[in-house]
Write a structure and sequence with these properties.
Layout lengths: L1 H26 L3 H16 L3 E6 L10 E7 L6 E7 L6 H40 L4 E4 L5 E4 L1 H7 L3 H4 L4 H6 L5 E10 L2 E9 L13 E11 L7 E9 L1 H47 L6 H27 L1
Antiparallel strand pairs: 1-3, 2-3, 4-5, 4-9, 6-7, 7-8, 8-9
Length: 321
């Protein structure tokens, strides 16, 4: 009769153990933390000296003091082994119960392993995403933010929690500028390219003391594999103000060079006929009597030709600068 009471007590405790294993496996998403939590209840129930979760350990065999539970992972070729160590040796009842809990452990361990792997991959992605020196953000198809990297957050002066759902352009540009406008939009190599002009001045006026800033915003759309095939957009924000300034200076310089070449060409083309006209005017004046009314007309013509000659000299002078 005493034996039956002990069996019932053990059975109730074992059911409680299975329940605890299930609850721990349901809430945990980290394999290391799962190892610690399971270890606590196994130490108490089996009076263990050690418990550990091992990856790809196929060398050790069961002994009187060490028992292994092998769990295959469906998603990969990896195998997990649970190691139970009890220096005082395992009883037959212990072995029986360990075999019984294998079924529930075979369900929760792979699930926690997959969650742990996904979390590790996400943390690696997050680290790379945050280390990129260009401001980036991921949005929905309406440019409402899902997440942003540290460079974007620093520029906008916001925290990750506050920018979720905010419009990507407003959050980025209005943190520094009074207003902004998209002045050009194009597409190249699967990217949408926006050229944005930003103004700091309170009157929205551009001046030498308050020049416009320019940004190039690159956007690429793609789909992620969910049950709804969700649209995701990636936005890059790049300050091109200095680039625009250099391009403007190069354009101005190019225009000056081109204008100089045109001026030089015109001056050379006009210089010869103007010189010839001056010579012919002097010849004609020498052949006409001094008191002739034509002398006055010829003098006025010569004055006009000299003015043209002066203009040509100024063109040549400009062309040499």
């Amino acid at each position: 009769m005493t034996t039956n009471i002990e069996d019932k007590t053990i059975s109730a405790a074992f059911l409680l153990l299975k329940k605890e294993i299930f609850l721990i496996g349901f809430k945990e998403s980290n394999l290391k933390r799962l190892e610690v939590c399971l270890g606590k209840i196994f130490f108490k129930y089996f009076l263990l000296d050690n418990f550990s979760i091992l990856l790809n350990d196929n060398k050790s065999a069961n002994t009187s003091s060490t028992y292994y539970i092998n769990i295959n992972l469906d998603s990969s070729k990896q195998k997990i082994r649970l190691k139970f160590l009890k220096l005082k040796t395992f009883s037959e009842q212990n072995i029986y119960e360990l075999k019984k809990i294998k079924k529930i452990l075979s369900v929760i361990i792979p699930k926690v392993f997959i969650k742990s792997q996904k979390k590790e991959l996400f943390n690696q992605w997050r680290l790379i995403f945050d280390s990129i020196s260009t401001p980036l953000c991921l949005t929905d198809k309406f440019a409402k933010i899902y997440t942003a990297n540290q460079k974007y957050l620093k520029h906008s002066g916001q925290t990750q929690d506050l920018i979720i759902g905010a419009y990507a352009f407003d959050t980025f540009f209005k943190a520094e500028f009074l207003s902004y406008k998209i002045i050009n939009k194009s597409a190249k190599n699967n990217f949408n390219i926006f050229e944005v002009e930003c103004i700091k001045n309170h009157e929205n006026k551009i001046s030498k003391t308050n020049p416009s800033s320019y940004y190039e915003v690159l956007n690429q759309n793609f789909k992620i594999s969910t049950h709804e095939q969700e649209d995701i957009s990636l936005y890059f924000f790049r300050d091109i103000s200095q680039q625009k300034k250099i391009e403007k200076e190069l354009l101005t310089e190019s225009q000056k060079v081109e204008l100089g070449l045109i001026s030089s060409s015109i001056a050379h083309e006009l210089n010869n006929p103007v010189g010839s006209m001056l010579i012919y005017i002097d010849l004609v004046k020498n052949q006409i009597e001094a008191g002739s009314p034509l002398q006055k007309d010829l003098t006025e013509i010569k004055t006009a030709i000299l003015k043209c000659s002066e203009i040509i000299k100024n063109l040549l002078s400009f062309a040499k600068k």
